[in-house]
Amino acid sequence: MNEFKKIVDRHRHGVYTFAFYSLGNHEEAEDITQEVLIRLWQNWDGLRRESLTAWLNRVTRNACIDRARQRRAYSRRVVANGTGGDVYEGASSEPSPEAYVESNEIKNHIRHALTQINEPYRSIMILREIQQLKYEEIADTVDLPLNTVKSYLHRGRRMLRDRLKEALSDERV
Amino acid sequence: MNVYDDTTRCEWARDSIDAYLDGELTKVDVAALESHLEMCGGCRNELESARRILFELRELPEQRCPDGVTDHVYETIGADTTVQRKTRFPGWLSFPRTGLLRPALAGTLILVISISVVWIGFKSRSSVRSPVYTPEQVAQAEAELKWTMAFLGDVGRRAGYAVRDEAVGTRVIDPMRRAVHPALENGAADPTHNNGG
Predict the structure, then answer these.
(1) What is the pLDDT along chain A (173 residues), one digit of tens a residue?
(2) b vs e for B114-145, b when ≥16 Cβ sit within 10 Å of the residue's Cβ?
(3) Domain A2-70 - what CATH class?
(4) How far, in Å, CA of A59 to CA of A70, rounded?
C-alpha cells in the first residue's frame, strides 16, 4: 500500500492535468482521476513498474474518450484558472496588466479550443506540448508509429490555429 | 519542392510552419519557406500566430490534483468489499500454478499434439484410393508406428516422473524426512534402519 501511495503521489497531477485539458473542467477531471487511480489499484499486481507511466497515460486517455462520448452536449464552459505567470515571450520581464490579462484570455481560448479538437490530435498535443512527453512515450500511449505522431502533432496544431483564428483576430495576434 | 502558383506555395508554406518551428525541415525547405515568407504577408502572419499559440500552449500550467481526490480513492480501496484487486489468474488456476499444473499441462499438450499428428497421418493415408503397399512398406510403417508408440510412452513416463517428483517428492517424502530427522537427533530408534544389534 505504501508503494501504491508513492506512485499515486507521483502521477496524480499528470493524470489530472491530462483529464482537465482533455475534458475542459475540474469536476470531470476529478472523476476521471479517481476512476484511473482505482483501476491502478485493481491492476496493481499485474503491472510492470517500468511501464506504469505508459499504462496510466493510456487508461487516462481512454477514460477521457469514453467520458466525452457519454456526454451528448459537450460542455462549452471554459474554466478560468488564473494560475501561473502567463507572460508572452515578446513582452518585457514585468508584463503590463493588459498583457497579463490578454495572455490569460488567449490561454482560456486555447483551453476551450483544445476540447474541440478530435482524437488523437488532442491527446497528442496535450501529451507533447503541455505534459512534455517524448515522442516515443506518446507513440506508446496512442498506439501509433512515431512519424505518424509527429505529423498528427503538426496537423493538430494547425487545427487548433484554425479554431482560434477568429478569437485571435479580435485580440490582434 | 514543386510549386507552380501562389496558392500552392502558400498552402505548402502553411503546412510546413509547424515543422519549421520544431526544426524538422530540411535546409532546402527552410530556405524555400523563408524566401516565401519574405514575400508573403499572409504566411508571415500565420507564422506569427503559430508561434504565439504554441508559446501559450506550452505555457499552460500543470493542474494540481486536489487532495480530496486521492483521499476518496484511499477510502474506496480501503473497503476491500467494494473494490477487489484483480489477480493474474482466475481462481480455478491460482492454486495449482505453483506446483503440478505446468508439467501436467506440458505432458498433456505433447501427448495431444503427438496423437493428432499420428491420427492426421493415418487419415491422409487412408483417404488415398486403392492403396497398394509392398511388404517392405508395411514393415516400414510398422516400424514407424512402434517408434511413435515408444516415443509417446517415453513422453508419458517423463511427464509421470515430473508429476511424481513434484507431488510425492516435495509434498510427501520431504515433509516426512523433515519430520523423522528431529526424532533421530533426539536418540529415538530408526525403525527403517537395522543397526545390527
Answers:
(1) 788 889 999 999 999 999 999 998 899 999 999 999 999 999 988 888 888 889 999 999 999 989 888 875 444 444 444 443 333 333 334 455 566 566 677 888 888 899 889 999 999 999 999 999 999 999 999 999 999 999 999 999 999 998 888 666 655 54
(2) beeebeeeeeeeeeeeeeeeeeeeeeeeeeee
(3) mainly alpha
(4) 16
Question: Taking the domain A97-170, which CATH number applies?
Answer: 1.10.10.10
DSSP string, B23-76: T-S-HHHHHHHHHHHHH-HHHHHHHHHHHHHHHHHHHPPPPPPPHHHHHHHHHH
Torsion of CA A51, A28, A6, A47, to 10 degrees: -30
Gap between the Cα atoms of B35 and B33, Å rounded:
5
- Distance in angstroms (rounded) separating the CA atoms of residues A12 and B63: 10
| φ/ψ bin of B130: left (φ > 0), alpha (ψ from -120 to 50), beta (otherwise) | left
CB contact under 8 A, B63 and A13: yes
Helices B41-59 and A146-170, axial angle in degrees (round to 10):
100
| Cis, peptide link before residue A120, omega less than 30° from 0 | yes
Amino acid at A113: A
* Nearest CB partner across the interface for B63, out of A20, A88, A168: A20
What's this model's pTM, rounded to 2 decimal places?
Answer: 0.59
Q: Between chain A and chain B, how many beta carbons pairs sit less than 8 Å apart?
A: 125
Helix axes B41-59, B27-39, angle to 10 degrees: 120
- Specify the amino acid at residue B184: L
Q: Residue ranges of the domains in chain A?
A: 2-70, 97-170
Closest CB from B46, B60, B64 relative to A130: B60
For the CA atoms of B137, B139, B145, B147, the dihedral, rounded to the nearest 10 degrees, stands at: -120
| Cβ <8 Å between A89 and B55 | yes
Indicate if the alpha-carbon torsion angle A92, A96, A97, A102 is positive or negative.
negative
